Amino acid sequence: MARSIVRLLTPTKGQILLNGQDIAAMKARELRPLRPKVQMVFQDPYGSLDPHLTAEDIVGEPIGMRGVRSATARRAEAARLLDQVGLPASARGRRPAEFSGGQRQRIGIARALASQPELLVCDEATSALDVSVQAQVLDLLADIQRETGLTYLVISHNLGVVREISSHVVVMSKGAVVEQGPTADLLSAPTQPYTRALRAATLDPMSIVGRKPRGMVSRLNTMEQPGGPGLEKAAS
Fold first, then answer.
1. Other CB atoms closer than 10 Å to residue 10's CB: what's the count?
2. Using 50, 70 and 90 to split pLDDT, how confident is the model at 17?
3. Looking at the 3D structure of the chain, how many domains does it have?
4. Which residues, in sequence order, are bridge partners of residue 210?
5. Residue 213 lies in a domain
6. Which one of 13, 81, 161, 196 has the fewest beta carbons within 10 angstroms of its own beta carbon?
7. Residue 57 domain-assigned?
8. What SS3 class is residue 24?
9. Domain for residue 153, yes or no?
10. 194: burial class by Cβ within 10 Å (0-12, 13-18, 19+)?
């Protein structure tokens, strides 16, 4: 679905409406002016960046495609975007192999933002990252949304991520919509067996054997206090 929305795949049937225009049926030439409006952050931060380019070049490439011809202007805009996603000035001249997974995903987000999109498709954008890094990337996405009003389409099997970042949820199984609604309502009281099964499969933090992540321990301690949020909130 994500690849169809950004038209990496051409759907065999159905519609994909962007501002009332059916982009599913458009030819490549018709799509060209619309492509910057829909960008994607891919699941694998290790395979989605060109290993031969620097971070500045990776982010600067779509800026050039927007029509910014001045190399100085492209570098300045790339630097601003890398700073926006929390990477230092020293990162601009480094290549992907010199970054951690979380830093690579930040470069991927900056690259997507360089096209000035209206819709950002995040395909399991945090699933390949450690839990603490996942939280940092989610915080970054939330900050960007507050600053820009950007719309996200987030694909995730992690209900904690879904609860954290989404306002509306669509549950799909085998390519069909099973259930949809406001996030809080759907996750607290799902009506369909498939959604209930997904919710039941969410990891109970109390069942983790061994050392728990520091943030989880803090939430569990809060949960145990009088008036605490309870296990459901802690698990989110």
1. 12
2. very high
3. 1
4. none
5. no
6. 13
7. yes
8. helix
9. yes
10. middle
- 66: domain CATH number is 3.40.50.300
Question: Average pLDDT of the chain?
Answer: 84
- 109-137: per-residue pLDDT in tens? 999 999 999 999 999 888 878 888 888 88
Confidence (pLDDT) at 220:
42
Residue holding tokens 């809060």? 222
8 A C-beta contact, residue 147 and residue 181? no
Q: Which residue has the tokens 């989110």?
A: 236
Q: End-to-end distance of the chain based on CA atoms, in angstroms?
A: 26
Vertex 165 angle, CA 160 and 167, to 5°: 110
pTM: 0.79
Least Cα distance to 14 among 169, 177, 150 occurs for 177
| Cα–Cα dist 184/163, whole Å | 7
CA dist 57 and 161 (Å) reads 30
The one-letter amino acid at 60: G
Q: What is the pLDDT of residues 32-69, one digit of tens each?
A: 888 999 999 998 888 899 999 999 999 999 999 988 98
In the numeric block, the tokens 């960046």 are attached to 49
The residue to which tokens 């933090």 are assigned: 205
**Stretch (H or E) spanning 39:** strand 38-41
Q: Quick one: average pLDDT of 168-181?
A: 93
Q: How many CB atoms lie within 10 A of CB 21?
A: 13
For residue 1 the two structure tokens come to 């679905």
Interaxial angle between packed helices 214-224 and 131-148, expressed in degrees from 0 to 180 and rounded to the nearest 10: 80
Among 219, 216, 173, smallest CA distance to 197 is for 173
What range does the domain containing 62 cover?
Answer: 2-166
> Distance between CA 35 and CA 172 in Å, rounded?
25
